[in-house]
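Fill in residues.
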C-alpha cells in the first residue's frame, strides 16, 4: 500500500478556518452585552448640599466638686446645698438656648450619698446633661 503524496485532486488547504473563530467571538460579544447593563446602574449617593455647615457652639460646662465632708463648690466657689439649688432654679428660668452640662467631680473618699444628692438636685431641676468626671484616678 502506497500513498499518493502528490495528488492534484485533494490538495492541502493552507488557510485558517475562521468559522469557529467567528463563532467564539460572537459568543463573547453576546456575553459582554449581557453583563454590561448591571454595571451601568446608578448608585444613589447623599451628596453634600450647597448650604454652609452650621457652626456648632460648645455647651456651657458647670463644674461641681464635692469633697469628703460633703461640701460643694460651683465652678470653684464654695456654696451650700441651698445656694446650689437657687443657682439651678435661676438657670432653669433663664432663657438659655442650650442646656448646660454639669460635670460633677467627687473627692476620692466622698460618700456616695453626697454625690447622689447633687445629681438628684440637678435632675429634679430639669437638667439631663449630668455626668461624673475624674473616675480615671480609680482605675488600677
Amino acid at each position: 500500500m502506497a500513498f499518493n503524496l502528490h495528488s492534484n485532486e485533494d490538495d492541502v488547504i493552507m488557510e485558517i478556518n475562521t468559522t469557529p473563530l467567528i463563532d467564539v467571538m460572537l459568543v463573547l460579544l453576546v456575553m459582554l452585552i449581557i453583563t454590561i447593563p448591571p454595571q451601568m446602574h446608578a448608585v444613589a449617593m447623599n451628596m453634600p448640599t450647597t448650604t454652609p455647615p452650621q457652626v456648632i457652639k460648645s455647651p456651657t460646662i458647670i463644674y461641681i466638686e464635692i469633697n469628703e465632708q460633703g461640701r460643694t463648690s460651683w465652678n470653684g466657689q464654695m456654696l451650700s446645698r441651698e445656694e446650689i439649688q437657687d443657682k439651678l432654679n435661676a438657670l432653669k428660668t433663664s432663657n438659655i438656648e442650650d442646656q448646660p452640662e454639669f460635670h460633677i467631680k467627687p473627692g476620692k473618699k466622698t460618700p456616695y450619698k453626697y454625690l447622689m444628692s447633687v445629681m438628684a438636685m440637678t435632675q429634679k431641676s430639669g437638667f439631663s446633661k449630668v455626668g461624673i468626671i475624674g473616675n480615671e484616678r480609680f482605675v488600677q
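Residues 61-138 form a domain with the Nucleotidyltransferase; domain 5 fold (CATH 3.30.420).
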